[in-house]
Each structure stands twice: as C-alpha cells, then as structure tokens.
From TrEMBL:
The lineage of its organism: Bacteria, Pseudomonadati, Pseudomonadota, Gammaproteobacteria, Pseudomonadales. It comes from the Bacteria. This is Oxidoreductase. InterPro entries: NAD(P)-bd_dom_sf.
Length: 213
C-alpha cells in the first residue's frame, strides 16, 4: 500500500463508473490530487483538477507527476453511431490516454474493459476491447490491471432498453456473468490500485464482486 499522498489521473470521470470512482478518490485521505480531464465541468473539490475540453486536445496539456492512472472511458455502438466512431473511443482514445499517463510517470494503469474481451472474437464490441487490452500490454507498463466487469448496475444518463430487460436476470447469474453494481466496481478498482504487484493482472467480474464488498 502507498504510504504517501497519491496523485491520480482519471479518464471518464463524467461516466457512470468514473463518477463513482471519482467520489471515492476524493474521499480517500491518501489521495492528494485527482487530475480528471472531461468534456463537461465536474463538481468542484479542493483536491480536484478538472481541465475541460476534448480529451485528445487536453492530453498534451496535462501535468504530473502521476502515480496511478484509471481509465473508465467507454462508449456503445448506439452512442458512437458507427464502428469507426466506437473504435476511436474504446481503442484509440484509451491508448492515447494510457500513453500520456505513462509519460507523466504513472507506474500503475487500471482500465475498465469488459467481460468477453477477446481480440479474436467474432463480436465487434468484444474484439475491439480485446485488441485494446493487447495494445495496452505492449505499452510496457510496470503494473497493468485490466478489469472485466459484467453488466453494470446503476443510474445512467441515458436509457438502455436491452440492459434494463437483462438486468433482473443477470443479477442472479453465476460466476463472472453476474451483473455488478457500479459502486462495487469503484470499490474494487480502488482496492486493486493499492496493490503493488508488478506486471499484468486481469480481473474478471466475479473477483470484482469479491473485492467490491
């Protein structure tokens, strides 16, 4: 566990997972500074630095040092509107953020990926997530944590019919397929951030459940 105040870089702080994670980070006594670039202003906090604009424009302006970076960026095919637009966020932007975090001195990157991530998948969404994971591994991180949650439960800014229909059933599925509450995911991510093991760790949704209790 880190014994000194932490400087954190967080991408996706305005999304469902990022919002809950940001709240946890800002209430941790060991966190001294959270740098959270976003497209829209976030609620003010004395430990929060919140550059506002397009992520690709903001990345060169970010300053360190950074100890740990969290990436909660992610879209859906419906939100993106096309496969190219989806890849631009869930692959290209994630990799650009990770590269900048590494340049700023971060030694541990934690990324919210997805259950079923596989670069060889016939499902486009899972294939892009898997390709992103492989590209992150190639960046040479001292410590890389890939979290693969199942369906996330929690309030969203937009209504998703498919997820609303699936949620009651996925709450009771066994193992890694069981839906996970976003607050539990945020707790799990913070606990994973405190681990100092070098190298790669892939954390499936059932383990995220356990860590997020």
């Amino acid at each position: 566990m880190y014994l000194t105040p932490q400087h954190i870089l967080l991408a996706g702080a305005s999304g469902m997972t990022g919002e809950h994670l940001l709240d946890r980070l800002l209430n941790e006594p060991t966190v001294e500074r959270v740098l959270a670039p976003s497209r829209k202003p976030l609620a003010e906090h004395p430990n929060l630095v919140n550059p506002v604009g397009e992520m690709l424009d903001l990345l060169p302006q970010l300053d360190g040092p950074i100890h740990t970076a969290f990436c909660c960026l992610g879209s859906t095919m419906k939100q993106a509107g096309s496969q190219d637009a989806f890849r631009a966020v869930d692959h290209d932007l994630v990799l650009a953020f990770a590269k900048r975090a590494l340049e700023l001195g971060a030694r541990h990157l934690l990324v919210v990926s997805a259950i079923g991530a596989n670069p060889d998948s016939s499902v486009f969404y899972n294939r892009v997530k898997g390709e992103t994971e492989e590209a992150l591994k190639a960046q040479g991180w001292p410590q890389l944590t890939l979290a693969r949650p199942s369906l996330l439960l929690g309030p969203r800014n937009e209504y998703r019919l498919g997820e609303s229909l699936a949620a009651p059933f996925m709450r009771w599925l066994p193992g890694k397929h069981r839906a996970i509450d976003v607050t539990a995911l945020a707790r799990a991510l913070w606990r994973l951030a405190l681990e100092e093991d070098e190298g790669l760790r892939v954390v499936e949704s059932d383990e995220l459940h356990r860590l997020g209790r």
